[in-house]
Write a structure and sequence with these properties.
The chain is mainly alpha-helical. The protein has one domain (35-189). The chain contains seven helices and no strands. It has helices at residues 4-29, 41-62, 67-88, 99-129, 131-138, 141-160, 170-189. The longest helix is centred in the middle third of the chain and has 31 residues, at 99-129. The radius of gyration is 21 Å and the shape is globular.
């Protein structure tokens, strides 16, 4: 059950996504197809958002309050970096047919999948370390934003592979789904609640509430 604050965060985020989809319809009517083609405005905005995610999650992982936070934030930083590389199409800048091109192409194809597996492993580790803290994260504002971002990215993949079709052009909605997802990831990364232990818990504790300062009891009375 979502808390009131997490529910309000979800509703605001969904309203923002809906506003962007309405903007997409208006853009399509005004024949601005060039904005959402390869290496144009929407893709460049995606790269900017992902670069921000790499920076924010990387810095916060380095300054994490404990090992749990560093693992969680570090996994998100690595995922953001792999997504940035995947969206950048860096391999096209290299001479085709060269070894460097082949290596960059293989990394481009496989890095994202490996990053997803790594993040799944890291989050599984977080679950095993502290289930209460993991569930509190999912029920927090940044957790809700990251879950919604995951849903939008999954929707973008389905549109990209033509598994589903919302309306023509599919590509505009695909790019907007991805841009919204990366934007939500960036907003979540800036939240103070991300990586912070629940109230009443000391950093690095394993679910034991912090009752207060320890007292020294004299042995001889």
């Amino acid at each position: 059950m979502l808390t009131a604050r997490a529910l309000m965060t979800l509703l605001r985020a969904m309203m923002g996504v809906a506003a962007n989809l309405l903007l997409a319809v208006l853009l399509h009517w005004r024949e601005t197809e060039s904005l959402y083609q390869e290496n144009n405005l929407l893709e460049n905005l995606q790269l900017a958002a992902l670069a921000g995610c790499v920076l924010v999650y990387g810095l916060r992982a380095r300054r994490g309050v404990d090992g749990y936070a560093r693992l969680q934030l570090g996994a998100l930083a690595v995922l953001s970096a792999c997504m940035f590389y995947r969206e950048s199409d860096f391999h096209w800048l290299l001479p085709e047919g060269t070894r460097a091109y082949a290596i960059a192409y293989v990394i481009h194809r496989g890095a994202f999948v490996l990053a997803l597996l790594g993040v799944a492993g890291a989050f599984t580790r977080c679950w095993l370390l502290d289930r209460r803290r993991f569930l509190d994260f999912l029920d927090s504002g940044p957790g809700v934003l990251l879950v919604l971002a995951t849903v939008l990215l999954a929707g973008g993949v389905l549109l990209d592979k033509s598994v589903v079709s919302i309306a023509e052009p599919n590509r505009l909605f695909e790019e907007l789904f991805e841009l919204n997802a990366y934007g939500l990831m960036l907003i979540a990364g800036g939240s103070r609640a991300l990586g912070r232990p629940p109230a009443g818990r000391a950093p690095g504790s394993s679910g034991v509430p912090v009752a207060g300062p320890a007292r020294t009891v004299p042995l001889d009375r």
